[in-house]
Amino acid sequence: MGTVNILLAEDDEIMRITLRDRLLRQGWRVDEAEDGRQALALIRRRRYHVVIADIRMPHASGMDLLDELMQTAPATDLVLMTAYGSVDDAVLCLKKGAADYLLKPFAMDDLVVRVERLLETQAIKSRCASLEECCGAGRTPIIGASKPMQRLLKLIGQVSQTDATVLITGESGTGKELVASAIHYASARARGPYIRVNCAAIPEGLMESALFGHEKGAFTSADARRIGYFERAEGGTLLLDEIGELPLHLQAKMLRVLQEREIERVGGGAPIRVDVRVLCATAKDLPAAVQRGEFREDLLYRLQVIPIEVPPLRERKEDIPALCRHFLEQFRCESGRRMEISEQAMSALMAYDYPGNVRELRNIIERLTVLSPSPVIEPWNLPPDILGADGENGSAAASLRLADAVAQAERGCILRALRRTGGKKGEAAQLLGISRKNLWEKMKLYRIEG
Q: What separation in angstroms does the CA of 364 have from each of 201, 213, 268, 349?
């Protein structure tokens, strides 16, 4: 979970010092408040995992703290300490959302056990949220045994053991998000949240609020406090995809966040400590953007503490068969249709350079599984851009000799005849001028279902 932040609000000084010392022994970070007003001010400035508070304090009660937490930090758990006479108040707070209460006097170990239980529950909830997000996005493994991919996987393993900022670069469609996901789930932060933000998809005017959050009343439509992506990623990893689209006026703030590990909400006056690992990804040439004055040079240096370049598919073509098998299996699970690719079609697929990289290959395989009339994908089923404008492309040219061209034309005639006759073999054979037995043989040869 990373650093655990706890707020201890207790107006009795001796009790507060005793509790603080016991909590610190657990390795937790503890802030103290001697009354309700101080506690409210701290809650509004900093994110806490757990707030431990006396239910009755000067200036603000435990109920006031609960109301503030429910509005601005619902993920924070509130543990109330109460004397016998205020048990009814504590029960009311439980009904409204407090996590637990302790009846004074209590054993310090009892408090520690309860806090540990709450922290474990928070970790499970965070893990489930990350898993749901990944399942919804169709999380995909990194596939490839080529030398470029072996180097990439080795680097991912090394980077995962650190908390350093990583800049992932590569052409569009190469799988930069998959690399970021692999780094997070192989790291010590794997149990924490994994938040992905596409900077290109957020309007410039909303970017600062989305990343850092805002206070109530910070601008016209800010009718409540909003927690930004940095605070949501507390204890985990934040991926800033398309970081090259970050506006210049926010780049200075991002640099400060990476250096100081502090953010400020829009409209807020106090810094908030964050424990977040930042990964960035871009298809943009950031050094060129620096030369054009579109990106800060100091931010670039801060981002690429560890640079990772994802190779394009044309530089690792030996991975194409494994990728094709993976995509065919993926679409088989979705459609229930089992497909395979002939050797000639695979040769054509491996000869193509894929300007859209792995994403383009996946789209091609999906299209073939939908449109191919046969369970075996042949060269004539491939899109024209794979074969080239003249029907020949690289090694595919050797396979499309006269015999193959004749076979392609013959197969097309049989399919048209079957469609015209509604699949009736005898009528189709008459249209084609061949015997029914000959038609069956050719359907078997060309793997036409019928």
A: 26, 40, 49, 10
DSSP letter assigned to residue 273? E
Which two tokens mark 208?
């600062």
Is residue 41 assigned to a domain? yes
Q: Does residue 243 lie within any of the structural domains?
A: yes
The tally of domains found in the chain comes to 2
CB 274 within 8 A of CB 230: yes
Average pLDDT (302-310) is: 94
List pLDDT tens digits, range 243-286.
Answer: 999 999 999 999 999 999 899 888 887 788 889 999 999 999 99
The gap between the terminal CA atoms of the chain, to the nearest Å, is 58
Q: Which domain holds residue 59?
A: 5-131
What's the CATH number where 74 sits? 3.40.50.2300
Query: How many alpha carbons lie under 13 Å from residue 273 in its C-beta half-sphere?
Result: 13
Indicate whether 336 belongs to any domain.
Answer: no
CA distance 234 to 223: 24
Q: Quick one: 152 and 279 in the same domain?
A: yes
pLDDT score recorded for residue 140:
63
Domain annotation covers residue 71 = yes
> Residue 40 corresponds to which tokens in the numbers above?
């409210």
Rounded to 10°, the helix 13-24/108-136 angle is 50
Query: What single-letter amino acid sits at 444?
Result: K
The pair of structure tokens assigned to 388 is: 């080239």
d(CA 20, CA 15): 9
